[in-house]
Amino acid sequence: MTTTKTSSQPINKVTDDAIDIGRFIGIIIDNKKLLIAAIVISTLVGYLVATLSTPIYRADALIQIEKKQSSIPGLDMAAMFRGTNETEAEAFILRSRMVAGPVVERLGLNINVQPQYMPFIGEWLARRSGKPDSIVFETFNPPSPGTYDLVVTGANSFEIYQFDELLVSGKTNQLLEQNGFKVYVTSLEANNTEEFKVVKTRAAAAINRLANSLRVTEMGTRTGILEVSLQNPDRQSAERTLNAVIEEYQLQNIRRSAAEAQNSLKFLQEQMPEVKATLDTAEAALNSYRISAESIDLQTETQSLLERIVELDKVVNDLEAQESEISRLFTKEHPSYQALLEQKNRVLEERESLSERVQGLPETQQKILRLMRDVEVSQQIYLQLLNRMQELNIAKASTVGNVRILDAAQATFGPVAPQKSVIVAISFLLGTFFSITWVLVRAMLNKGIERPEQLEEEGLNVYASVPLSDAQKSFNLKLERFARSKERQALHMPLLAKEDPTDLAIEALRGLRTSLHFAMLEAKNNILMITGPSPAVGKTFVTANLAAVLAQSGKKVLVIDADIRRGYMHSIFNVSNDYGLSDFLADKDKQIGEFNSVIKQLYVENLFFLPRGEAAPNPSELLMHDRMKELLELCEHEFDYVIVDTPPVLAVTDAAIVGRYVGTTLLVARFGETPVKEVTTTVQRLEQNGVDVKGIILNSVERKASAYYGYGYSYGYQYGYSYKSEKA
Known about the structure:
The strands form 4 sheets. Strands 13-20-19-14-18-15-17-16 form an 8-stranded mixed sheet, sandwiched between helices. It has a 5-stranded antiparallel sheet with strand order 2-9-4-5-6, with no helix packed on it. Among the domains are: 51 residues; 142 residues, no CATH class; 260 residues, Rossmann fold, CATH 3.40.50. It is α/β, with parallel strands linked by helices and 728 residues long. The N terminus and C terminus are likely disordered. The chain is built from 24 helices and 20 strands.
């Protein structure tokens, strides 16, 4: 139970940082029910989203990129110097339009069929039924790409609309050509819906969509093995599409390899006549010289020299072919290029040395050597080209490419998305984070009074701290329900001091009664005004129950409802409001001395009540009238206490008018809602009008963990013993 000055004992001394953290913890504890509700709702929403979302299946395949053997001589040696990873290039080829284009055209991926279900749960119900809804088109050629509505009208019949205009009507397994529309439906299953949306996009858009949906990753480092994956809501469609992609990629690879062999063969066929002519010319020259020189034969030494020169010419030809290939890969400063040039120079030097030895032979031997050398070299080149042409013909006929499908596409048995556990966990975390953030932000923005010391620091006395009553909260809920009904005239708000006199709020008002007795000893009269800064602070509740507590102590108490605008104290006391204060003040036919005819005896002994009366258009003028002053002067001598309930000070001026007639003024502030600044402004406004505020009644005080942990104070509402209401 609280007394005139609310004393507090600090629990311990902590730093400011610890106080802030403690207050945050207290705020969370105070709002634990709200936080739990928000977290549960957020988690349930996440679960529903995960359950109702369309499942996504993943199909994957495995292919191997084998080391490519070139059909051009010397290419394999050049590849030894190459530092690039061919699998990276193959990954880009897999996602290219060259591969995706034929797949889109073959499978008709630019046509998207979407069954239309009821919002939110329709698709989930369709999946639960186990019966699919699908349409298979053999031909779907509308006048232009766009969205079309297909409505099933029978077992095998349908209609196609666009913008509510009928374009095609017919049956399945029939080629229909109407209004520039050409369509052939091979299969139609409508088990859960009769409406479909058919979207035909441009081929380029469908190709890009397929290429972007492919995921290609290399298994390991430089293994040449690629994993290709594709995600799709339809498990079978994912497998079918991915198989088509890797098959098209393999065919493209085979065609590319065959094209290389064909190009090489074409080049050799073009060179063969020239090489053959060179060989024929060399043989003719040799035969002619032999005839003219009477069949000169080469000596053994000259024969071996010839063989060596021919061998070196062949080596030079091979090195020049390798140089041609390497020059496309590296610059001349590259070590590999330099090594090849050094090898070539050594061979050329040796051939030059042999050429000098040839100069020392007799003229006839030199001549025959040169001619035979030309024939030998031409013969070797010609035979090499013939062999290569045969190899290319065989390679062309048996081309298989360097791509091997290790594992065909296979979809996962269960969906890979959405991941229910992840979504539920994220929803839980987000719900926790945002709910705590919202509670803390709301608490930081709330400038309401949370401890009496905040008022005392402003020089204001706190006469009582009235705890929030659970019984009064229940009564208030009943009042709100009745207020929303059409039976407002039959409202009855129970008086807590009568219904549950042992409630802690009533005990606090009994303490206020004692303090009030001493406070009013020095007052000019026994009239007490109770007001508040703003509506909904509980001044009417405090006024009614304080009056009842005073009456229960044997004092004769009169309560005047001076809130002529919106007063409802007559509902608490369960009396009629047909004729009251406003009517009495405005009725000049009534003498002031006849005020007893207006005052009503209540069901609480020694408690009397003057209702507000009918709402008047000029309440301030009525309260300023001399009749109001005369009325209060008469009541002052008739009753031990006269308690006047007035409207909020910051809303209207009525309280400032009545305050000049009274001896004591108390201000009611609501715990946690009324800002300190609002209280000080109210006090200043009353003092400007000559009304001295005796003290503050802090109403609806709650035991909050934020106050305990944050400020280190604990309000003593509870006793070491407890009362039991007889009505409980």
